[in-house]
Design goal:
mainly alpha, about 85% helix
Length: about 70
């Protein structure tokens, strides 16, 4: 399991999104990973999901970050 924020963020993504993010410059990957960590830390809804399934909470936070980026 990756320990750096970008690696953890990439691991939380589905395969298609993972490849799209990997194609971005490293600075953009780091910005997205920081937004993902903020999402995990600040969203109370994700806290509840995290108690049930940490991987699901991480995947949901990653989805939200990417939705905001493209939306």
């Amino acid at each position: 399991m990756p320990t750096d924020p970008v690696g953890r963020f990439l691991a939380a993504l589905g395969p298609d999104h993972r490849e799209a993010v990997r194609a971005k410059p490293r600075e953009e990957q780091e910005r997205l990973a920081q937004a993902w960590e903020r999402e995990l830390a600040t969203d109370d809804e994700l806290d509840t999901l995290d108690e049930l399934s940490p991987p699901s909470a991480e995947a949901e936070a990653a989805r939200r970050v990417l939705d905001r980026q493209t939306g």
